[in-house]
Amino acid sequence: MDLPFIVATLTRRGLLTPGRPIRVASQLNALRRWGWSLAGELRQAAARDPGRVAVVDEHGAALTYQELLDRSERLARSLRAGLGVRTGDRVGLLCRNHHGLIEAIVAAMLLGADAVLVNTGLSAAQLATVTEEQGLRVLVHDAEFAERVLGLPAELHRVDERRQEELIAGAVPGDRLQPPERDGRTIVLTSGTTGTPKGARRPTPHGFGPLVSIIDRIPLHARDTVMIAAPLFHTWGYAALQVSFALRATVVLHRRFDPAATVAALAAQPCDALFAVPVMLQRLMEVAPPQRRPPLKVVAVSGSALPGNLATAFMDRYGDVLYNLYGSTEVSWASIAGPAELRAAPTTAGRPPHGTRLEILDEAGQPVRDGQVGRIFVGNEMLFEGYTSGAGRESRDGLLDTGDLGRLNPDGLLFVDGRADDMIVSGGENVFPSEVEDLIARLPQVREVAVIGVPDPEYGQRLAAFLALRPGETLDPEAVREYVRHYLARFSVPRDVVFVKYLPRNATGKVLGRELRRYFG
């Protein structure tokens, strides 16, 4: 990435403003010695703005950047002295959004250990598999998960919230920390909607490039107040935390997402930005809007497609502040859609940011024409380093396969048609469930919808639509089918229309297709 672009973007976002020379020097030295990991970003923020509030919880309790760093360092020293954590070990984190999770991640990285971010929605059996496959030495967990960790191996060190506070309080004084021989990696678990999740090794940034790619398109600024509603164990929530620390922002965290509490907090803090997943926006639209619009400049979402007219409806209420980032654990980001693009095309994934290459390729690896569906390949400097199992993903000419299908329109806007393995063949026709989902989601009676493929003895596969209606609303299955038939080809009409109270989702808001398929045995 070219230096003039980096300097110009950092200047626009307020990161190159003058400061006290000794603090600026200390800030740059922290980055030089500790790098651009989360630990390095926390150190640079504490060096430049030690008294600035770093984290605020749902009860209003706050920690400054210096206090957060001190607690993280004390925890690191105790993990090393008391539990024997060393460079290359793996520390599991089974926590909701709160400062204790941040402290544990940073502590692991300060020691050169890998932080394994564990989805809080995993079952006890999945957790046991993850513990074994990732070779965890320590598991830091919230008190609410005490029963879930009971069946894990006896040799695994368990650190609950009370024990974490004891380790911080009892840290050996004077045991200085030095940059480790190797950087600790962040291991993010894939969503696991089809089974046990895989561990994906996230790279450590090597400079300002990744930050600049994001803040060039999403107008976040130094010292903003940012609410992160997306789970921190998710790629998107973790990326929001990294960006926030780089900006020396104040981060607002709630352990659980509650739409009414979120609306209240956005105004009370007050927040400049909100990081969320699309289903959270749907929930925010279901509660009464605030009397005064929060001073939001940015609402950034990622993790799944924006359904129906959610983008325009949300902006009608909260202003043209919505930014949709399409990416994955493996490729980080691929494209970003801003408010103007979402107004024009509410389901678009936008355009690649600076420094990102995106191509739509056919099965032979050749580029397809505009409007033609193909496989989405992406290249940037934050492609993952492979799965912890040793497996990788297909790549072509430096571009990584996202596993998704999509198309570009003549204006260069990307549209994602869904996972390659979600496409079904019904009676010889290729059918994309996401297209049908998006259409049904526009019905005013529908609260949420999922469309999946199920086996069919005559056509091979057929579509089944699962609808959760808004309170007090009714719909007839044949009316739904006739509505789809009016807009789409006959092979896109769902043969089965099932009404459910709600859709089964994992902790990041993705619909669990395997749960829906149980309706068909």
List the helices and strands and how they pair.
Layout: H1 3-12, H2 21-34, H3 38-48, E1 53-56, E2 62-64, H4 65-83, E3 90-94, H5 99-110, E4 114-117, H6 124-134, E5 138-141, E6 157-159, H7 161-169, E7 186-189, E8 199-202, H8 209-217, E9 225-228, H9 235-246, E10 250-252, H10 259-268, E11 273-276, H11 278-284, E12 298-301, H12 310-318, E13 322-328, E14 332-337, H13 339-344, E15 357-361, E16 374-379, E17 395-396, E18 399-408, E19 414-419, E20 424-426, E21 429-431, H14 433-440, E22 446-456, E23 460-469, H15 477-487, E24 496-499, H16 513-517
Parallel strand pairs: 1-10, 3-4, 3-5, 4-7, 5-6, 9-10, 9-11, 11-12, 12-13, 23-24
Antiparallel strand pairs: 1-2, 7-8, 13-14, 15-16, 16-18, 17-18, 18-19, 20-21, 22-23
Helix pairs in contact: 2-3, 3-4, 3-9, 4-5, 4-7
Unreliably modeled segments: none
H/I helix tally: 16
Structural class, please? alpha/beta
- Beta-strand portion reads 15-25%
Distance between the termini: 52 Å
Count of DSSP E strands? Answer: 24
Rg of Cα set: 23 Å
CATH class of the domain at 423-518: Alpha Beta
What percentage of residues falls in helices of 4 or more residues? 25-40%
CATH superfamily membership of the domain at 423-518, which one?
ANL, C-terminal domain
> Overall pLDDT, averaged?
92
* Main β-sheet, spatial strand arrangement: 2-1-10-9-11-12-13-14
The assigned CATH architecture of the domain at 423-518 is 2-Layer Sandwich
Largest sheet, strands/sense/barrel? 8 strands, mixed
What do we call the CATH topology of the domain at 423-518?
Answer: GMP Synthetase, Chain A, domain 3
> What does the overall shape look like?
globular
Keywords: Ligase
GO molecular function: acid-thiol ligase activity
InterPro entries: AMP-bd_C (IPR025110), AMP-bd_C_sf (IPR045851), AMP-binding_CS (IPR020845), AMP-dep_synth/lig_dom (IPR000873), ANL_N_sf (IPR042099), ATP-dep_AMP-bd_enzyme (IPR050237)
Domain AMP-binding enzyme C-terminal: 435-510
